[in-house]
Structures are given as structure tokens and as C-alpha cells.
Amino acid sequence: MKTKTAESILIEIKHLRPWSFSRIQKARKCTYDFYWSYVEKQKPAERADFFILGSGIHYILENAINTVFKRRKPLNYDVLKYFFEQFRHKEPSLNYEKVKPFLPKILTYANAQLRRMGKIQFFHSEVELCINREFAPTGFNGKEAFIRGKLDFVFAQEDTLYIVDHKTNRNRDFSKRIKTQLRWYALLAKAKYPEFKKLALEVHNVRYGTVRREIFTENDILNFRLKLVPIIEMVEEELLGKSFKDLTPSPSSANCRWCDFRHICPVRKE
Ligand code: SF4
User: Fold this and answer.
1) What is the pTM of this model?
2) 123 forms bridges with which residues in the sheet?
């Protein structure tokens, strides 16, 4: 079956780089999904409720952490409600009842940062990092951008750089996918802050208020880099110069279930 994208744009390097964790995941998961997302930049179907909820929770949490560090005193629920209302200006469909169960955990996590006051050297939330082909820091949107990512929360304490990713999903596991995502961030953070020999990769599940941690050394980063480069090279080789009709999609119930392009995909699996 033909889709409206059958006569299409050839994939160029500008469609591939800079690689983000989600971009490479998409390219490896299903080339149709990748093509519609990054080459044609098609409008996805309506965003699923859980994506909107996840964005709202991230927004409230990020602002709560920043406010705690700024005010140097505990927050209350009114402040969180204020951030919720701010988010609703952008995304009016987010329902307060959906957000409410997360607020006690957000409050606890944000206020717990007070214990770090005076111990940490710096902190950043929603920090954009990017490296070039030589793995040196470069501009997030620059010409040389090769790999990039937006890190939820980064702080330095003693000899360790902490990299925290906030999750809202129901799965409590420190899954292989989450570990790989955090290692991706560690690679970026190491280029920006080379003075840290030890990196603590943390997944903070906001739904349950849990934090799982993995320590990553310089050697681990080197090994990760050695594994990642051939994967990126393989994906680039596979996609460069191809048009839509040259691509082979990967329909499966796992891949198609949450795909943004189910509404236009001729081979989707239920
Ligand atoms: S619906 Fe399935 S086959 Fe189609 S683009 Fe999405 S993941 Fe690929």
C-alpha cells in the first residue's frame, strides 16, 4: 500500500544529527516512525494523556527544585498548585486530579534538597548538553552537534557528579533502557565537567518517590562510548541517502502500540 510519503525526501546527515537518545531509539525501532518524526516532521496524532501528564509533572518538579534552592526554605502545596496552573496555560487538557497523587512525592523530593544546601558545588535543572564528533562540548544547535540531550537535574557533591532523570511511569525497574539513557547523559556530562571521576546515575520515580542509583566511572564511560559509536555509524550508514520507499518498517504490537503515526501507517500492527 502507498502512503502519501511514498515520493519523498532523501535522508541527509541533517536529518540524523544531532543524535538524541530518543532519535537513535526511534531509528533502531522503526524506520517509518523515524522518517515521519525527523525527516518529514509530520504532525503526530494527538498526544497521549500520559505524555501530557509526564510533561506536567516534570514542569512542576523542575520549578519546585529551583524554587527550593532559591528560597532556601521548604515549599508547601500552594506553590506546587501555582506551578500546575502555569503549566495549564500551555496544556489546558491536564486534569488536576491526575496530578494530585504526585504532589506529596514532589514536595518531599524538592524539600529534601534543603539537606544538600552548603554541600553541593552547583546544580542545574533541564540542562542542555551537546558534543561533537570528537566528543568535545559544542553548541546545542551548532553545526558540529553530534550527540545531545537534555538532563533533568544535575548536581555536584564532593567528588561525584549526580545525574538525575525523573520518571513518572508505573514500572519501578531500573530497566536496561533507562540505564542506557542515563549513560548517554553521563557521556555528555563528562565532556562538560571532565573534572569528575565518578558519576552517580539516578532514576527518580516521581510516582513512587524512589531513587535508584548506579555508579559510573571514567572507564565505564569509555566503554559505553566504544559501544555507542559503531551503533551510530551503522544507523547512519543504513539510513543516509534513502527515501521513504527504500525503508523497511518494523511493525509489531510492542512497536506500534504507542507510535505517534498509527493514524497514517499502512503496516501498523494492532
Ligand atoms: S505504526 Fe508500527 S510500523 Fe508503523 S511507523 Fe509506527 S512503529 Fe512503525
Assistant:
1) 0.91
2) 155
| β-strand partners of 127 | 151
The answer to whether domain 120-239 has CATH 3.40.50 is: no
In sequence order, the β-bridge partners of residue 151 are: 127
What are the pLDDT digits (tens) for 164-205? 999 998 888 888 999 999 999 999 999 999 999 999 999 999
Which of 32, 37, 244 is the best mutation target for the ligand 1 pocket, counting ligand atoms within 8 Å of the beta carbon and taking the most?
Answer: 32
Ligand 1: residues within 6 Å at CB?
A: 30, 32-33, 249-251, 255-256, 259, 261-262, 265, 267-268
- Report CA-CA distances (Å) from 23 to 97, 232, 243: 32, 11, 18
Chain segment 204-236, per-residue pLDDT in tens: 999 999 999 999 999 999 999 999 999 999 999
What burial letters (b/e) apply to 209-218, b meaning 16+ CB within 10 Å?
A: eeebebebee
